[in-house]
Design a protein that fits this description.
Layout: H1 19-42, H2 53-73, H3 78-90
Helix pairs in contact: 1-2, 1-3
């Protein structure tokens, strides 16, 4: 999923990042973004006239995929910050 107009918040780190650390940091960023998107969804102005459990399920799946794509792209920079913090702690 390509999201245009969003650039990564930080540039690539100078050091080589452990692939497992990168994977964990991106997964953590995705979880945070899912929580953020879910909280924003709860702040709706009214009830959905077509509301059903199916719509809710598909909306949650779409939100999760969006969060995963944003995290993989590094749009918010949370994963990069975690990588730098943990990489410094392990060396």
């Amino acid at each position: 999923m390509k999201i245009s107009g969003i650039n990564p918040a930080t540039s690539a780190p100078a050091q080589k990042v452990d692939p497992e650390l990168r994977k964990a940091a991106v997964a953590f960023e995705a979880v945070m973004l899912r929580q953020l998107i879910g909280t924003m969804r709860k702040g709706s102005l009214g009830e959905d006239i077509f509301g059903s459990s199916a719509n809710t399920t598909y909306r949650e799946m779409a939100d999760a995929r969006t969060a995963d794509a944003l995290a993989e792209r590094g749009a918010f920079g949370i994963a990069a910050l975690i990588e730098r913090q943990l990489q410094g702690a392990t060396k």
